[in-house]
């Protein structure tokens, strides 16, 4: 960025509240992912409470925030990008992408806006990933958590919405995004082993051991994790 933006100091600023969840110190990457999930949870709570939404975060929720403008371009060579123009943040989304992908891209880019000025503390790089790669991974994680929270995903699973396609339709996200969230919450182990089962039977064991379950149908093992799309 060539210019450092100055944001309103209002205590009710949603962006300010979300940014305040990041500590003023260097973080390990696992810590940064925990912070990203907390920020996503807080954002979803603030936006849905303010707007009474039951459909999750939508474009107008982010576009309605102070100094945030969302625009769509048909000729955009990538799914999305964000920049500060000296007056406001511009988040540009590919107009030709599907609505689920647009929503995901919007939240991904909004995470970059949140991280402005503190990315160097959150993403320090390691032997496997450069700082920029970590920032992209955290933005993906934030978007997934904001659109499909762990609590809501487990609730949907608990009431019987368990197939990836059905979950994707329920949350209005892409099926690959759901598969990633299933992996991140551990539900992919059940999903991939049990493509058709609807209930689990408890397994008897010692009282001092955690309860375990077995499923009526056998599966083919755990699948590889996939990227968001």
Secondary structure layout plus pairing:
Layout: H1 14-19, H2 29-51, H3 59-63, E1 68-73, E2 80-84, E3 89-94, H4 99-114, H5 119-122, H6 131-147, H7 150-158, H8 164-171, H9 175-185, H10 187-193, E4 200-203, E5 212-215
Task: Jot down its keywords.
10 helices, disordered N terminus, mainly alpha, three-stranded mixed sheet, 229 residues
What this model shows, in words?
There is one protein chain. With 229 residues, this protein is mainly alpha-helical. The chain has 2 domains: 14-147, Arc Repressor Mutant, subunit A (Orthogonal Bundle); 149-199 and 212-229. It is 46% helix and 11% strand. The protein has 10 helices and 5 strands. It has a 3-stranded mixed β-sheet with strand order 1-3-2. Strands 4-5 form a two-stranded antiparallel ribbon. Strand 4 and strand 5 form a beta hairpin. Helix 2 (29-51) runs parallel beside helix 6 (131-147), helix 4 packs across helix 6 (131-147) and helix 8 (164-171) packs across helix 9.
